[in-house]
TrEMBL record:
Increases the formation of ribosomal termination complexes and stimulates activities of RF-1 and RF-2. It binds guanine nucleotides and has strong preference for UGA stop codons. It may interact directly with the ribosome. The stimulation of RF-1 and RF-2 is significantly reduced by GTP and GDP, but not by GMP. Keywords: Cytoplasm, GTP-binding, Nucleotide-binding, Protein biosynthesis. Residues 8-277 form the Tr-type G domain. Its main location: cytoplasm. InterPro entries: EF-G-like_DII, EFG_III/V, G_TR_CS, P-loop_NTPase, PrfC, RF3_C, RF3_dom_3_sf, RF3_GTP-bd. The keyword Cytoplasm applies. This is Peptide chain release factor 3. It is found in: Cytoplasm. Belongs to the TRAFAC class translation factor GTPase superfamily. Classic translation factor GTPase family. PrfC subfamily. GTP binds at residues 17-24, 85-89, 139-142. It comes from the Bacteria. It comes from Robiginitalea marina.
Length: 529
């Protein structure tokens, strides 16, 4: 296969949803259909169970599983499909945001009864801002839920999407009879058992044919005809270009648990979803078809075994062919590195691989060289964009609880921050360290890991911050900037990269600062033009 064909056949995507909508179930069914696993239940849920805050074994178990399920690859038809796992738990939302920088498209799963939920809103917003192509899958049609048209409205309004249904349910819950596949113009009838084999598929182009009555009964037939007429009248027809540029989102209905509507989704997905897309670096846009290898680290996973401290850095290949034992430039360190055992991922296994192509993810063993966002090239100085830090939600001082272990603590904190577990801020006034996280759960994870992996102990102290804002560098002689630095000294810190951050203690003080110092630009993410 040529290099161009290798690129064209890759589909790298993520499934996003609010917890419990059916992401794990759908992932498993896709793997099942791809022949990558033989039975349901093979993919372990990476969910953190409720109450996990006090159950460290659960957190550890979760970390182990999430390595295995970080990338799930399989072949379907002539395509190589890479599913990147995105944690649904909101305390790990930042992990998911970073993973979204490595996908070329996403599938959004929505529960038919619950409709659009909070976590879905946040994740879809990120995808929308980045113009990532999205397909929506409305799941659990075997249960009573919202009316299909009401749901489509809700998706448009709450998620700001422009939808067009490519399949439509025939009934729902107890009366769920099947799916009309608008994309392929055929009907799939539901028999209610959850075997992997697909039920009868009936090609059906002429909706006015009395055959429809015979198949699904008079009432369902007339409702379906009315619904499809309405779909045609209200929604634009599918426009691939609009889908690829984030302007239109096709919708499928089904039941992942019952394998229903999943073929329709997968068959259409492999046809319409984009192959690896070009990516912006600070210096220029890189095309996948370029021969020189480039890639970036979007995730770092620590080894669970404290005796082997090495980590696995997940690199998305953007262009060229990644080869085992070939020297690559680690741009940030200006250092050449070779990798003797890069891992590729297949189903739930990982194995050493000689070559990887754009769209693929390789796992590199790392002894502390990598940070999230690092770029690898064949020599060109490139910095991939798009892995910003967001303002954390929680802030606490971190104190050393064992004076003999100060070094271990510093090293542990440093490495955990590189992994992206949380963000570290150092106060300008007194050098005290503050840890910012998305969820309260991370504080326990950090404390536990510092102790078990680094032999260090820490305690926390509350620190009241409303929001962290990154301060755009300004002329040091600008009197307004000088005054800002002086007056706000108590609230200023440096992040890990040395960028200046304003830790506003309330919405009011943030607003006041913006009014009083209009020439100082404050940003809610660490990356700005
Ligand atoms: P998540 O990864 O998005 O968090 O969701 P997951 O797939 O774990 O699914 C959440 C629950 O919803 C699971 O039930 C799962 O069996 C169920 N589910 C998924 N798809 C469907 C569907 O099409 N129809 C129906 N009726 N249920 C569905 P659970 O009881 O929480 O877990 P389990 O004990 O069955 O694993």
């Amino acid at each position: 296969m040529t290099f161009t064909e290798e690129i064209k056949r890759r589909r790298t995507f993520g499934i996003i949803s609010h917890p419990d909508a059916g992401k794990t179930t759908l992932t498993e069914k896709l793997l099942l259909f791809g022949g990558a696993i033989q039975e349901a239940g093979a993919v372990k849920s990476n969910k953190i169970k409720k109450g996990a805050t006090s159950d460290f074994m659960e957190i550890e178990r979760q970390r182990g599983i999430s390595v295995a399920t970080s990338v799930l690859a399989f072949h379907y038809k002539d395509k190589k499909i890479n599913i990147l796992d995105t944690p649904g738990h909101k305390d790990f939302a930042e992990d998911t945001f970073r993973t979204l920088t490595a996908v070329d498209s996403v599938i959004v799963v929505i529960d038919v009864a619950k409709g659009v939920e909070e976590q879905t809103e946040k994740l879809v917003e990120v995808c929308r801002m980045r113009q990532i192509p999205m397909i929506v899958f409305i799941n659990k049609m075997d249960r009573e839920g919202k009316d299909a048209f009401d749901l489509l409205d809700e998706v448009e309004q709450k998620l700001g999407l422009q939808v067009t249904p490519l399949s439509f349910p025939i009934g729902m819950g107890y009366d769920f009879k099947g799916i009309y596949n608008i994309y392929e113009k055929n009907i799939n009838l539901f028999t209610g058992d959850s075997k992997r084999n697909i039920e009868e598929t009936i090609a059906f182009e002429d909706l006015s044919s009395p055959e429809l009555e015979r198949l699904i009964g008079a009432k369902a037939a007339s409702t379906l005809r009315e619904n499809l007429e309405l779909v045609e009248g209200v929604y634009p027809s599918f426009d691939r270009e609009a889908y690829l540029t984030g302007g239109q989102q096709p919708v499928f209905f089904g039941s992942a648990l019952n394998n229903f509507g999943v073929w329709e989704l997968l068959d259409c997905f492999v046809e319409i979803a984009p192959p690896p897309r070009p990516k912006k670096a600070e210096e220029r846009v890189v095309e996948p078809s370029e021969r020189q290898m480039t890639g970036f680290v979007f995730k770092i996973h620590a080894n669970m075994d404290p005796k082997h401290r090495d980590r696995l850095a997940f690199v998305k290949i953007v262009s060229g062919t990644f080869e085992r034992n070939k020297p690559y430039l680690h741009v940030r360190l200006d250092k050449t590195l070779k990798f003797s055992s890069p891992n590729a991922f297949f189903a739930e296994k990982k194995e050493v691989v000689d070559q990887s192509f754009p769209g693929d993810i390789v796992g590199l063993h790392d002894t502390g060289n990598f940070k999230i966002g690092d770029t690898l090239t064949e020599g060109e100085v490139l910095h991939y964009k798009g892995i910003p830090s967001f303002s954390p939600e929680h802030f606490r001082y971190i104190n050393n609880a064992d004076p003999m272990k100060a070094k271990q603590l510093a090293k542990g904190v440093d490495q955990l921050m590189d992994e992206g577990v949380a963000q570290l801020f150092t106060l300008e006034l007194n050098g005290r360290k503050v840890i910012g996280t998305v969820g309260a759960l991370q504080y326990e994870v950090i404390q536990y890991r510092l102790e078990h992996e680094y032999g260090a102990k820490c305690t926390y102290e509350p620190f009241n911050v409303h929001k962290a804002c990154w301060v755009e560098p300004s002329d040091p002689n600008n009197p307004e900037f000088k005054e800002f630095l002086r007056v706000k000294q108590k609230f200023l810190a440096k992040d890990k990269r040395g960028q200046l951050v304003f830790l506003a203690d309330s919405a009011f003080s943030l607003q006041m600062a913006q009014q009083k110092y209009p020439s100082i630009k404050l940003h809610f993410t660490s990356e700005f033009e």
